[in-house]
Write a structure and sequence with these properties.
Length: 205
Amino acid sequence: MALGESAEIAERAGAESLHIDIMDGHYAQDFGFNLETVEMLSKISPLPLDVHMMVLDIEKLIEPFLHAPVRTLCIHPETVKDAKAMLGEIKKSGKLAGIAVAPDVKLTEVVPLIALCDEVLVLTVTPGDGGGTFHTGAVEKIPALRDMTNQMNRRMVISVDGGLNVVRAQTCVLKGADKIIMGNAFYHAEDSMGIRKAVCFGKVV
């Protein structure tokens, strides 16, 4: 399926944004999209672009993305020497800043960063392992994050990505997720136009 066609299907289905995985084959053992993909999508789709950086040496790669036409940049704290400084740079560029929490990362490890985030992306599969094992325990991070943000008296988007089908996505929404990210299950569904309503009960996709 062509990139433009994929974006158009998502838009017609009511998607609120397009999620773009940037992978370098090192942090995530796969290759995803790149800066050129981001720039191309920005020209052919009116939807906001949210970028998930699954890369090592992110300090060497982040600069062009700070100037790219994207809404949100999510980083993995474990790949950055100074995650607080990196989040600050992202926000300084005018973009929304977020962190991605892999299944093997405990929330206690990222608590100091929560107050700096506009979004926390909860991963329910190992980064780069599309179609891999779904980590059920990762779903429990959603209500825990909601409790944290309530205690801080602040609003933050909690998104979920990885191996989601309609049933798993519904569970995540009921647990408190604001945004569901779906790839294979969406594009392979017989009724991709109706999947947003089936999953989200009015939440964003």
